[in-house]
Design a protein that fits this description.
Layout lengths: L21 H18 L15 E3 L2 E3 L6
């Protein structure tokens, strides 16, 4: 693996990270996904942002639901 920044390179004592093959990485990710399914661990879904649309003037800000 090539790294653009040396801080992202694995530590010298991490022998398993030297010369990793794409097939081994793919297999490891598949096993992790299978373990998540077996133990019921789900990835967290990102919450949908609910922006507040305030209308601001020189006299102050008002909520959008009060303008109707």
């Amino acid at each position: 693996m090539t790294y653009l920044d040396p801080i992202h390179a694995p530590c010298p004592d991490m022998e398993g990270m030297k010369n990793t093959s794409p097939e081994a990485v793919k297999q490891a990710l598949l096993q992790i996904e299978q373990l998540r399914d077996a133990h019921g661990i789900r990835r967290r879904k990102k919450p949908v942002p609910k922006p507040l649309h305030y209308v601001c003037t020189f006299s102050g800000c008002s909520e959008p639901w009060s303008l109707q």
